[in-house]
């Protein structure tokens, strides 16, 4: 009996081996079916491989083998029939001229996918140098939108790991309306002078974890916008960049509360801020930012290591004398160590419009060198 079964198994194996040359469930863009080749544009091949993989009733994997490929744009839409992985081993390069994109604000986008894995050790190269020179979005409210390297819109139960976002034209990674997504060992690299190149920006999402990331860029390493809950940032190195920030909040009407932020075991080097919470004055509606905890953080030559700024108003785009209506509460800074590049190590500029303020400063025990009155903040509240 066992013998017959073995023979049957062998027969079935041969049968399946003869029907598909490739590993089942694997959609390799360089296979004969899709025909992508290193050095050429793989936009069509990748789109087709995704469509086929997404329609697969069993778990599937789209593979981009090592090599450098041009990618004009990509829109990976779900829902898919089963868990799906996209393994990028090679380097994908964007057009340097963002004018070629169908959606000028997006290079690569994942939308409405559940159980997505992005992996492979590869690089998404946004070729941003040209765009940074023209970007005036830091001072012009009506500036043209510029491409974000990778968008995750309404992605759920997913893992993004072992990839690098390089030289994005705008934000590197934008997370919107996502639930239960882990970013691990994701690197972000762009020059310190590149404009608006936030590393990972999170908006209106819950259960997002960022861990073991190395982020060096021209704007915030991680920025957490409105409507976020249960966000955890651990073992992230940041620098160059503008630090890890909650906000800015209170710029637009009807923003949603930010609740439950943990930033732990991170190292910031040479950044213009450490950990900060920023809210605009003259916010159009009330807002809430609470339960935010910053712990075990090392600052190396950071310019504003700990900062709560409720008068955040870059380039005077607001009425600075009208207080912020964002209520900040249950905030702690614990075990923040290192060196400050400026004498003002801990700065808490709260809103005069909300009293009493419950920000907790008493847990700050900075072992900050070169600062004579590092603990002044702890006694002033
Ligand atoms: C989060 O996603 C992972 C991976 O898909 C899954 O195993 C886990 O059950 C999800 N957790 C929640 C709370 O939904
Ligand atoms: C995410 O996973 C959780 C737990 O397995 C599940 O309840 C939820 O429906 C999933 N989300 C989606 C959009 O499928
Ligand atoms: C991310 O950067 C770290 C430190 O430089 C490196 O060890 C790791 O291999 C990088 N990961 C990827 C996916 O390139
Ligand atoms: C912090 O990170 C370091 C190095 O990655 C690790 O050795 C240490 O266990 C971590 N500590 C905590 C509390 O996670
Ligand atoms: C910090 O930045 C300065 C000037 O930009 C640079 O010379 C220095 O090497 C950087 N230090 C570290 C530790 O990266
Ligand atoms: C403060 O935040 C922590 C962590 O999110 C939470 O467990 C705790 O209940 C909050 N405390 C208050 C007084 O809201
Ligand atoms: C410290 O930061 C300041 C300001 O960014 C920079 O000019 C200086 O070179 C940095 N020093 C080191 C030792 O990295």
UniProtKB/TrEMBL annotation:
MF-aspect GO terms: polygalacturonase activity
Keyword Hydrolase among UniProt keywords: yes
Pfam family, one: Glyco_hydro_28
UniProt entry keywords in alphabetical sequence: Cell wall, Cell wall biogenesis/degradation, Glycosidase, Hydrolase, Secreted, Signal
Entry annotated with the keyword RNA-binding: no
Subcellular location: Secreted, Cell wall
Active site: 242
Domain of life of the organism encoding this protein: Eukaryota
Residues of the signal peptide: 1-22
PANTHER family: PTHR31375
Homology family: Belongs to the glycosyl hydrolase 28 family.
The name this protein goes by in its record: Exopolygalacturonase-like
Annotated organism of origin: Pyrus ussuriensis x Pyrus communis
